[in-house]
Specification:
- The structure is a homodimer of 416-residue chains.
- The first copy, chain A, has 416 residues and is of the alpha/beta class.
- Chain A has helices at 3-22, 26-42, 44-60, 65-71, 75-90, 128-139, 153-169, 185-192, 207-216, 239-251, 267-282, 292-297, 306-310, 326-336, 349-358, 375-378; strands spanning 98-102, 108-115, 118-123, 143-147, 177-179, 200-204, 229-233, 260-266, 287-290, 302-303, 317-323, 341-345, 363-368, 386-387, 395-396, 403-414.
- The first copy, chain A, has two domains: 3-222 and 397-410, 3-Layer(aba) Sandwich (Aldehyde Dehydrogenase, Chain A, domain 1), CATH 3.40.605.10; 229-376, Aldehyde Dehydrogenase, Chain A, domain 2 (3-Layer(aba) Sandwich), CATH 3.40.309.10.
- The first copy, chain A, has 16 helices and 16 strands.
- In chain A, the strands form four sheets. Chain A has a seven-stranded parallel beta sheet with strand order 10-9-11-8-7-12-13. In chain A, strands 5-4-3-6 form a four-stranded parallel beta sheet, sandwiched between helices.
- In chain A, a hairpin with a 5-residue loop joins strand 1 and strand 2.
- In chain A, helix 2 packs antiparallel against helix 5 (75-90), helix 3 (44-60) packs antiparallel against helix 7 (153-169) and helix 6 (128-139) packs parallel to helix 7.
- The model of chain A has no long low-confidence stretch (mean pLDDT 95).
- At the A-B interface, helix 10, helix 15, strand 13 and strand 16 of A face helix 10, helix 15, strand 13 and strand 16 of B.
Chain lengths: 416, 416
């Protein structure tokens, strides 16, 4: 069977399965998720073996250190994945919820949340996305077709084996979760062309992947997560706070989308702050690529190129720029940002307000780390991704993002 | 200046204007809308003269009767448009509304509604869309770039002249509302390519227009309004109700998207209902195109082709089919429908429930006319279109549909 055909068959199975899972009760869906958690824990050994194969080929292919961390699965991470399944069980199911009202014309309207139908996911290295996505889709009565990256294919196959077993044990159609086993560009393109079978496509990964989906997909796309995030240290910043936030936002997990890639510093505090920053970043072996002015203050750092300011490094690398004003910082950020998360450190509330109002990103922080942009940290429970587009939902996407609405209208012969 | 350039310049002006209108107070925006209403009434004479030019060329080009009705502007319709501006003034502005919560991590989140930015509209004959769209966009702090149809170009220019005058009188940037004067396909394509300048594209019109936007646009699209709507008369229907609903849904305004295009009748009531239906439809000169079985009951009607069941006639034409069961009716509708509005007439509540649950359309009616699918009839105030897609918003789109959200997060050095 060729690749386009494999994808079409999986999507058709998902479409068929979507009709029955859409009508399943919350209780039945929760039992399914709990059973998936149990089976993942039971099958930990075979999952970790499969993951070792993936890690070995990734290392062979010279994959970056931060990326290897994203790919790795061990006992404690499986425990974490199972815990996140239980946390999805604990979340309220939005399906069927809604409101009712009547109109003078004689009609009564019920607006109810319904599943989107079939969700397509295209993602890269992190295999936990496989389970997290399936859990959120199933909880909201959606079927899902997964197309993960080649780096994690063995791990993903093991995960989906447990999920399908749980589906079947709990009386669901196994087609509700499909994994595309081909990880070529052709299989991604095939999934993007499944208009009529797939209701929404959610890409998770780097800028290139997101752009390819946005530009080529015939299926509606939710743009997610490309995160060229910025930290701006204002002239009135508390430099100790600034340092703590910079280190957290860059070094606590550099491979994720809410980590910062560029630090901008007001010229008035640059002489003092830059050496503090370099000394802290040296402790994490962060490579600093600075503008010409910052290279004069910090001897021996690399000169940043235009491209460095455009890049989501996802690694222990940071771009550094000195700016003359808040305006210059805002302009720089609105030019280079992917619209994800940006932070200002300042004790001047006027500057804070202007920064929050004029920066057009999902989350705009004052005196806090960009690392908080996350469904769990925001209090939404699990997330299927972070939308950086303006339509449908913006920011961390929980269960609600996987639903749409429908109007059920009744009358007794009402006409307009 | 070539067409692509004209479009780019208008979009750049809109983008610039969007920054200031986004920050305007509700009061200031309401004054603007009221002033537009006043100016339209003052300029009624020149608007109607321009509209006469449009009507004359449309008639010359053999435009269908129902379409001429959509195009026509007279004093009472200008009064109606002014009234709808005042009704937008009366609606609550969603901008800046939202909620606030804190997290144990030490951050406080404010989630606020913000404008989308720049809205692109591509639409066909109805010139009132020009004013309605501008009003809804301006009220929500958005700029808008309008690309109407060639049939209404003179009327649209007059409308936009009044709008720009009001913008300038009220201290706004005139670029906030732009009208593309070229009505070629090239200008539509240029607007679809303005990614980065235009935040969302809302096409309003026939199936061909919508499909062209969905397939070609690089800007996110909200699919609207193509309405191949159905009425199903169940075996347990009250036939008087069915007749009243059929006549209302087909004949009260056949050119609009929530009018029905196909009537399906259960075989058990066909012998009795079809002659009633024909006699009522004859009073409105509705041409009936029936399936083979209905042609045996109603002598002299035209035999329907497959294409007739796929067609949104927007005219005094209806397709008619006899079905053997509720299942067959549901299957037919899910196959041919554009997902807009469908109705069942039945006294059997089990059939009603099944119909509402299994039909995957925006609005599913029991014993009521599909003509109710409308922002005003649903109680939302004005609407900018009826979304037939599942993402962002489904059904009649009011002010809320023209906004997105943003998270403003504050801490005091909070890190994760």
């Amino acid at each position: 069977m060729d690749i386009a055909n494999e994808v079409r068959v999986l999507c058709e199975s998902a479409k068929r399965a979507s009709h029955s899972i859409a009508l399943a009760s919350e209780d039945k869906k929760n039992k399914l998720l709990s059973r998936i958690a149990e089976l993942l824990l039971e099958n930990a050994e075979s999952i970790i073996s499969a993951n070792k194969l993936d890690l070995a080929s990734a290392e062979e292919n010279g994959v970056a250190k931060a990326m290897l961390d994203r790919l790795m699965i061990n006992d404690s991470r499986i425990k974490g994945i199972a815990d996140s399944l239980y946390s999805v069980v604990a979340l309220d199911d939005p399906i069927g919820k809604g409101d009712v009202w009547s109109r003078p014309s004689g009609i009564t309207l019920r607006r109810v949340r319904v599943p989107l139908g079939v969700v397509g996911m295209i993602y890269e290295a992190r295999p936990n996305v496989t389970v997290d996505s399936a859990a959120l889709c199933l909880k909201t009565g959606n079927a899902v077709v997964l197309r993960g990256g080649k780096e994690a294919i063995n791990t993903n196959k093991e995960f989906v084996r447990s999920i399908k077993l749980a589906l079947s044990e709990c009386g669901f159609d196994e087609g509700a979760v499909g994994l595309i086993t081909s990880t070529s560009r052709e299989s991604a393109n095939a999934l993007m062309s499944m208009r009529g079978l797939v209701d929404v496509l959610i890409p998770r990964g780097g800028k290139g992947l997101i752009r390819a989906c946005v530009e080529n997909s015939k299926v509606p796309v939710i743009e997610t997560g490309a995160g060229n995030c910025h930290l701006y240290v204002d002239e009135s910043a508390d430099l100790e706070k600034a340092l703590k936030i910079a280190v957290n936002a860059k070094c606590s997990r550099p491979s994720v989308c809410n980590a910062i890639e560029t630090v901008l510093v007001h010229r008035a505090v640059a002489e003092k702050f830059l050496p503090m920053l370099k000394s802290a970043f040296d402790g994490y072996s962060v490579e600093i690529r600075g503008c010409a002015d910052s290279c004069e203050i910090l001897e021996g750092i690399k000169l940043a190129t235009e491209e460095d300011f455009e890049t989501e490094f996802d690694d222990y690398i940071v771009a550094l720029g000195i700016v003359d004003s808040l305006d210059e910082a805002i302009e720089h950020i609105n030019k280079y940002s992917t619209g994800h998360s940006e932070a200002i450190v300042t004790e001047n509330m006027k500057s804070a307000d202007r920064f929050q109002n004029e920066i057009d990103s999902v989350a705009v922080y004052v005196n806090a780390s960009t690392r908080f942009t996350d469904g769990g940290e925001f209090g939404f429970g699990a997330e299927i991704g972070i939308s950086t587009q303006k339509l449908h939902v913006r920011g961390p996407m929980g269960l609600y993002a996987l639903t749409t609405e429908k109007y059920l209208v009744t009358g007794d012969g009402a006409v307009r």
